[in-house]
Design goal:
The protein is an all-beta fold. It has two domains: about 1-125, TolB, C-terminal domain (Neuraminidase); about 135-179, Ribbon (Laminin). The chain is built from no helices and 13 strands.
Length: about 180
């Protein structure tokens, strides 16, 4: 799945399959400017920052179990969001500090460091990397991902895929080759 935010005409948090199909709104009310987004892959939660409402909130992958982690002036100007173990990590763009917020107890907020020009934050740790199983976009014996001549996108599950073409090409009638 692909999770993303949109604060155009109607602010929302959405999800879809990697090929863009099955687009679903998971948060569409009491939301103004969702910017940063982070996933808890183990427990299947979506966290986001709303810079207009000065809040960090969470829902499960279906948009249920919504609650506010933290709200108020102390978290204004947040950029980027990452989840690791019991904490959310984010960048305060006003003073360029890295903040650590307890995701179960939003009153526990610590400034860890200051970095010049910090705009985003990511946590890389072996336990946060999901095991890769064989999938529909694996390279075939001819070197083509999923048998697609250009781009292979996973669909509704790891066994299904959709072929797409680079700009200027169209997908052939076989659903795999680009012309």
């Amino acid at each position: 799945k692909l999770f993303f935010t949109d604060y155009g005409n109607a602010a929302k948090v959405e999800r879809c399959d990697m090929d863009g199909m099955n687009r679903t709104w998971i948060v569409q009310s009491k939301i103004e400017q969702p910017t940063a987004l982070a996933l808890d892959l183990v427990n299947k939660y979506v966290y986001w920052v709303d810079i207009y409402l000065d809040s960090v909130e969470v829902v499960d992958y279906q948009g249920r179990k919504r609650h506010t982690i933290i709200k108020g002036r102390q978290i204004r100007h947040l950029r980027g969001l990452a989840v690791f173990e019991n904490y959310l990590y984010t960048v305060n763009s006003d003073n360029l500090s890295i903040l650590r917020i307890n995701r179960y107890n939003g009153t526990d907020v610590q400034s860890l460091a200051k970095l010049d020009n910090a705009k985003e934050i990511r946590v890389y740790q072996k336990r946060t990397q999901t095991a890769v199983r064989s999938h529909a976009c694996e390279v075939d014996p001819y070197g083509m991902p999923g048998g697609c001549s250009h781009i292979c996108l996973l669909s509704s599950n790891y066994k299904a895929r959709t072929c797409r073409c680079r700009t200027g090409f169209i997908l052939g009638s076989d659903g795999r080759s680009c012309k």
